[in-house]
Amino acid sequence: MPGELVPRKITREQLERIIQRAAELQAGEMDTGDGVTEQELLKLGSDVGIPGRFLQQALYEENAGGSALERGLAARWVGPRTVMAHRVVPGDRGALEQALGEYMAEEEAMTPKRRLPDRTVWERQRGLFAEMKRGLSFEGKAYHLARAAEVSAQIAALEDGYCHAELAADVGNHRGSAVVGAATLTALGIFGTLAVALVPGLQILAVVPLVSGIGLSSLVVRDYRRRVERMQTALEQVLDRLERGEIRSRQRLAAGPRASAFARIASEIKKSVDDVAQTLRQPPGGAPPTSTSTTRNPKSP
Question: What are phi and psi for residue 75, nearest 5 degrees?
C-alpha cells in the first residue's frame, strides 16, 4: 500500500554491535562490583534468553584465549610456546574422554603422563615398537602430536549431549632450539660486521655478515612457525574427527580388518626372536637334551 513503511533490515555487523551495546546497558544497571561469578553470569544469561550452553562455551573459550596469550620477546620474535584448539562437540564427557584416550594411544603413539582432575597430559610413547610404529607408517601419518613435549586434553560438560573439548600442545622443545639458533646466527652476524668494519678498506662490506645472519635467523624462525602451523592443523584434525563421531571407544581385534601392518610385522618379529632364543637354548650339535631320568649302566651287575 502507498505510504506503508518497509521494515528496515539490520546487517550482521549491526546486530552484533546492538546486542553488545544492549548487554553493556543492562550490565550497567546491575550492581556487579568488580565482577560476577559464573553462576551469576549463567543466571543473567537465562534472564535475557541466552542458553547456558553458549555462555559456558564462551567462558571456556575466554579462559583458553587468556591462557594461550603469551607475552615476551621470544613469543613476539619466534612464536608461541603453546598451540591450542578447542570446540564444542556432541557426546557425553565419559565416553568422549575414553574415546579420545584410546585414539591418542593407538593413533597418535602417545602415552599418559599425568591424569589430573580436569585434564589428561600425554607424552610421546617410548620404546622400540613405538619408534617402529612411527617410522613404518604405511598410511603416511606424520605423528605431529608425538613431536610435542606434551599434549593436554580437557573435556568439560556443557549440557546434556554436548561438551567442550580443548587440546593444547607444548612445543617449547622446538621453540627453545629455534630461539638458540636464531640468536646465535644474529650474534654471529653482528660480530662479523664489527670484525670486518675494523679491517681497512673493507668497511663497505661490513654490512654483509649482519644481513646474512639476520637472513639465516629469519629462516629458522620461519621453519618454527611452520611447525606451529602443522601442530595447529593436527589438533584441529583430532577435533574434526571427534566432532563427526569418527573417534569412538572400541576394542579392536588383533586379527580384525583394522589390524595394522605394523602389528603383523611386530608379531612376526616377536615370533622370530622366540625361534632364535629356542635355537640358542639347544645343546651344540643339535643333540637332544639329556633326559633327567636315570639309565642303567649295561656293565653294572
Answer: -65, -40
Beta strand spans in 93-243 (E): 110-115, 120-124, 150-159, 162-170
Q: Examine residue 41 and state whether it is found in any structural domain, yes or no.
A: yes
The DSSP-derived string for 231-250 is HHHHHHHHHHHHHTT-S---
**What's the distance, CA 92 to chain centroid?**
22
How many domains is the chain built from? Answer: 1
Domain of 41?
A: 31-69
For residue 208, give the 3-state DSSP assignment.
helix
Distances, alpha carbon 120 to alpha carbons 68, 143, 161, in Å: 18, 19, 21
Most confident of 23-37, 94-108, 274-288: 94-108
Encode pLDDT of 20-37 as tens digits.
777 666 666 655 555 666
Neighbours of 69 (CB within 10 A): 10
